[in-house]
Specification:
The protein is mainly alpha-helical. The chain is built from 22 helices and five strands. A three-stranded mixed sheet has the order 3-4-5.
């Protein structure tokens, strides 16, 4: 529920905005927008289409408009810029931070992006253009070039005066790179260190060792390192070890949130929407799901083929069909659990590609342990109801299926990483299908052996 400055409910506010939009009453629209708290405007504007959103955006005060724009996803930003007048577009683009501007360029049509870059002031263009030369997935594309760079020979008093002078335009003042006259990174210094040091000391005497990342490094890995090390910021250097920007902890957290959203979506056999659900066109939602649905439907044919091969066994012992959902579900869930765990471990650096056999052996043991537990229960329950020969089949199959599914689920993310595919893609969708088919093969082979059919 949104909070407004009057007793008007959220539904009444939306109804008023919708009516004002339909009647093209800009005065009423302006009055209703004034009732919404600035932090809630994003959630309000997301519910309208691109053209209506652009009209309402132009009615907002300049400071509020920029605040709202910064909270939009890049896809919504792109739509909004495409709907605004040229002068509004240039003004908004100019006010963005360089890292946000570089990320937005990837979402804009090439013609509009080029026009906006040309319309920037020389200073802002100088900050933004170098970032666009790095790969889209690199941290160089996500760093902020507006930082305070201190020299090691500066006196503490002079350094503090410099921080006061350029601090308002910097991304952060809490951690500052220290570099020599050639901009070669030599260390970092925190604002706390400067404030507590003697005025006649030098920055080089109080600076600390710098944990840094290269501009060509993968953005997600760099962000993970920044967060795991609990750093306020990390210097970003070029190939010659010259400091060219910083990655702040809030930007690192945003990168990781985007990556986790993408992984979660792909693990669920869909593509991330990259925009709020209610403002996403129906066709875009369908497009994000239909491809994976078709892939899974085609791969499920493999399961059908397995059932066809063992049709005679099913005809002889119809009771075997009753346990197919149990066995395929257990195998799929076991594989997905292992894949999720290993994908997470891979993302945080707990495991590497060279650990594939270690992971496989570990997951086999985990799967066997779970399989023995589930298999014993399956043996007792199925045996007591349908006969001990059926119980033996179910118990033995659960042991084998759990061990196989855990091993496959644990190793597939590592294999995917090795061949350059997103590990999340190989988690739930493909592993479930694979485990269904192999689990059924194991099931019917055991059944034929035990029942002699």
């Amino acid at each position: 529920m949104l909070f407004v400055e009057t007793s008007m409910s959220f539904n009444a506010l939306l109804a008023g905005l919708n009516e004002a939009v339909r009647s093209e009453d800009l005065g009423a629209l302006d009055r209703f927008l004034a009732l919404v708290q600035p932090d809630d405007l994003v959630r309000v504007l997301e519910r309208f289409d691109a053209n209506d959103r652009a009209v309402m955006f132009r009615l907002l005060p300049k400071a509020t408009a920029l605040r709202v724009f910064e909270q939009f996803t890049n896809l919504l930003r792109s739509e909004l810029l495409s709907s605004l007048r040229d002068d509004d577009v240039v003004a908004v683009f100019e006010m963005l931070d360089p890292d946000d501007r570089a990320a937005l360029v990837d979402e804009l049509p090439a013609v509009l992006a080029a026009r906006l870059m040309q319309g920037l002031s020389p200073q802002e263009r100088e900050l933004t253009a170098p970032m666009l030369g790095y790969p889209r997935t690199s941290v160089g594309r996500r760093m902020n070039p507006e930082f305070i760079r201190l020299r090691p020979d500066m006196l503490i008093e002079d350094a503090l005066n410099y921080v006061r002078e350029v601090g308002p335009t910097a991304e952060t003042v809490y951690l500052m790179p220290v570099a020599d006259v050639g901009r070669i990174l030599t260390g970092v210094v925190s604002l706390r260190d400067l404030l507590l040091a003697a005025a006649d000391a030098t920055v080089g005497e109080v600076m600390s060792f710098a944990l840094f990342v290269s501009a060509d490094d993968n953005a997600e890995r760099a962000a993970r390192r920044c967060v795991d090390m609990r750093l306020l910021a990390m210097p970003v250097v070029d190939s010659e070890h010259r400091v060219i920007g910083i990655l702040t902890v809030d930007d690192a957290a945003r990168i990781l949130a985007e990556a986790e959203e993408e992984d979660s979506a792909r693990a669920g056999a869909t593509e991330p929407l990259r925009r709020p659900y209610l403002s996403t066109p129906i066709f875009s939602v369908v497009r994000s799901r239909i491809v994976w649905l078709l892939v899974l439907a085609l791969s499920a044919v493999l399961t059908v083929q397995v059932l066809e091969v063992f049709e005679d066994a099913l005809t002889t012992a119809v009771v075997l069909a009753l346990f197919i959902p149990l066995l395929t579900g257990t195998g799929g869930n076991t594989g997905s659990q292992a894949a999720t765990t290993v994908t997470r471990a891979l993302a945080v650096g707990d495991v590497r590609l060279r650990d594939v056999w270690t992971v496989a052996f570990r997951e086999v043991r985990v799967g066997l342990t779970m399989g023995v537990s589930l298999g014993f229960l399956g043996f007792l329950i199925a045996g007591g109801v349908y006969g001990w020969d059926i119980g033996l089949i179910i118990g033995s199959t659960l042991v084998c299926v759990c061990a196989l599914a855990a091993a496959v689920g644990g190793t597939m993310p590592l294999i995917a990483k090795a061949i350059g595919v997103d590990p999340a893609v190989f988690s739930t969708p493909f592993i479930s299908t694979f485990c269904d088919a192999t689990g059924l093969v194991v099931y019917f082979l055991i059944a034929k052996t035990v029942l002699g059919i």
